[in-house]
């Protein structure tokens, strides 16, 4: 009734495992982004726009 499943070539299962791992990581990132608090989400959204240097000389050339 039960037959043992054997793969003739291990190279057929490697892409399946890779896809499952990639899909799992993608789903984990999506869930984390959905559950993120609004304050943290807004901070990360504005992060590239924030000024890193607070010195008044920033951007001036001598």
UniProtKB/TrEMBL annotation:
<keyword id="KW-0472">Membrane</keyword>
<keyword id="KW-0812">Transmembrane</keyword>
<protein>
    <submittedName>
        <fullName>Cbb3-type cytochrome c oxidase subunit 3</fullName>
    </submittedName>
</protein>
<feature type="transmembrane region" description="Helical">
    <location>
        <begin position="12"/>
        <end position="35"/>
    </location>
</feature>
<keyword id="KW-1133">Transmembrane helix</keyword>
């Amino acid at each position: 009734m039960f037959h043992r499943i054997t793969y003739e070539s291990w190279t057929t299962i490697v892409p399946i495992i890779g896809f499952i791992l990639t899909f799992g990581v993608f789903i984990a990132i999506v869930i984390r982004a959905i559950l993120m608090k609004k304050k943290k989400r807004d901070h990360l959204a504005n992060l590239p726009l924030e000024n890193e240097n607070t010195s008044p000389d920033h951007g001036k050339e001598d």
